[in-house]
Protein 1
Amino acid sequence: MSFERTQEKLKILADAAKYDVSCASSGSKRSNASKGLGDATGMGICHSYTEDGRCVSLLKILLTNYCIFDCAYCVTRKSNDIKRAAFQVQEVVDLTINFYRRNYIEGLFLSSGIFKSADYTMERLVAVAKKLRLEENFNGYIHLKSIPGASDELMREAGLYADRLSVNIEIPTREGLKLLAPEKKREDFINPMVKVKNEIILYKSEKDIIKSTPKFAPGGQSTQMIIGASGESDQQIMWTSNYFYKNFNLKRVYYSGYIPISYDPRLPQIGTDVPMLRENRLYQTDWLMRFYGFEVHEILNNEHQNLDLDVDPKLGWALRNLDQFPVDVNRAEKRMLARVPGLGMKSVHKIIEARRFRSLNWEHLHRMGVALNRAKYFLICESRDFERRDLTGPQLKSLILQNSTSKYQKVLSSQLNLFE
Ligand code: SF4
C-alpha cells in the first residue's frame, strides 16, 4: 500500500469520524515538516478522558465509510455520493503504533460504517484492538464503537481489549428513529448496552475475588444522541438520557447538534444553523442531573418542554421557583446551596467548610473566591441583605441578562467544527 493511498484513506476516514463526538473535541495542529507518515494536521486527532480523568489525545478514525444502511442523518449512509475507503486491520494497527511512537497520540478511537454485517464489522474492530494489545503490547487508550446488532461473544471480546465501549443511540426517540433510520430498531442499541453493563459488573465482582481477572472496559460505556434532526423536545431528550444513565450505568451521554448534510424533506435543510447553544444547554442539564441532584422533571416538564436558551438551566429553574429563595449561606443544606445559580460544587464545599468556623458575610464569600454576580440575587448571609427584593422571575431574568454578556452569544449560529 503506497504512502499516498494510506494518507488519502486517513483523510477520508478521519473526516467521516468527526461527526461522532463521543470522544470530545478539537484537533491537533501538529504538522510534520519532513513529509513523513503521521502529519497530524487535520488527520483526526481528538481528545478524550480516561478512567482516572486524564485528558488523552486519540487517533479518531473509521475503519470504513462504506455502509449497508441508509440512515438519513448520516454522512456515511449508502445512498450518499461520497468517496469511500476502508482500512485493513493491519493498517489501523500500523498507523496507531506509528502515531504513538511519534508522540502524536496516546490512544485510538475507532468506529466504522457497517460492511456486510454487524458481526463482520465488529470482528474487524475487535481484531484491531486485539492485535494492538497482544502483538504490539500497546497499553494506550482504546475506545471502540460497538456495532449495533453484533453478537454477545464479540461484545465480550471487545471489552477485554478496549478501555471504553460505546453504542450510539443516534436519535433520541423511537418515532424519530423509525422516521430517519427505518432499518434500525431501538433494541439493536439496547442489547449490546445490556451485555456490556452486565459484563462490567461480572468482571468487577470476579476481580474482587480473583485478582488476576482481566479488566473489562474499565472506562465504562457511553453513547451519543444527535440533536435537532428529528424534532424531539429537550424534555424527550433528557428523559432518554436519564433512562440510559439509570439502566445501563453509562459514564457519559454526548449530545451532538445535527449538521445538515443532505437534501431530505425529513431533515432540517442544508444551511440551517447547527444547534450549538441548545447542545450546550443540554450538556448543562445533564451535568445538573449527574452532579447537582436535579431530576429531569424539575427542569423539563409538560409546561416547559424546552430549555430557555437565554439562561443556563439552573438559573432557568431558579427563576421559576423563586419561592425557594433566598437561601441562607450560613444555614442552608448542601442540596439547596447547590441549586443557587452561579454556585458550583467547589464553592458549595468551600462554604460548608468555612461556615463551620464562623458566620459568613459577603466579604468572606468574596475573599473565598465565590462568584456572586448571579448568586447574590438568591442568597442571604450574615448581613441579611438581599439583592432581589421584590422582583418577579421575568424582571430578574432581564436584570441578570443586562448585567452579563453571555459567553455563548458569539457561538449562536456558528457551525460545529470538531477539527479546528
Ligand atoms: S449504520 Fe451507522 S454508519 Fe451506517 S448509515 Fe447508519 S449511522 Fe451511518
Protein 2
Amino acid sequence: MLDAVQALKEKMVLACKVLQKQGVLDGYGHLSARLPGDRILSTPHMPPGKVALRDLIVIDMQGKKLEGSGEPNGETPMHTSIYKARPDVQCILHYHPDEVIAVSVASQGIKVVANCSVHFHRGTPIYDSPLLIRNHERGDQVAATLGDRNAVLLRGHGGTVVANDLDKLLRLGIDLVRAARIQMMAASLGPAKTHTQAECEEMIKGHDRPNTNRRYIDYYISEVVD
Ligand SMILES: [Zn+2]
C-alpha cells in the first residue's frame, strides 16, 4: 500500500509539472486525490505548479491536515464536498485558466465544437457565483452543481474537473482549456457548428479503450522530463 501511495504522490507532482508547462496554472489552484481510509492527498497552500514531493499533504474528509508541513488550501471544502457526493471520483483539479473563466461568464458553458471538447458533451454546468469556495456550504453547492458531470465552471473564477484516475484528470484539465480556447476562436468567425449528440456518443465509445489516454499523456510528460 505504501508503494501505491508513493506512486500516486509521484504522479501528482508530475501532473502539476505538466499543467504548469502548459500554462494553465497560476499561483493558485490545487490538485487532490482520494486515498484509502477516507483520506485525501493534496497539493498544499502554494502555487500548484511549483509543488515537489515533500510538499504534498494528507487531509481528512473534513479538510483537517493529517500529514505534511504545508497548510491546506482555502478552497479545500470544494474537494471534500465533491468526494463525499461522488464516490466514483478519485481525483480533482481546480484551476483558474483565463479561457475557462471567459467561457464561465457566457451562459452556455462549453459547446462541443472540437474533438477535444467531446469529453464535456454532457454539459459543463456553471456555479453562478465568483466567491471562493471556502466553506462546506459552498462546497456542497459546487458538488450539487457538478452533479454527475466531469467538469463544473465557476462564474468569473475558474473550473473544476474530476476523474477516476490522474491520467484522465490531466487530459480533462488540458482539454477543458483547449475546448474553451477553440470555442472562442470559432465564435470570432461567426456561428459555430457543433458536434451532434450522435457524433459525440460515437467518439466517446473510443475513449473507453484500454490505455486510450497513454499517447496523449506521454506527449505532455515528454515536455517536462528528459
Ligand atoms: Zn479557485
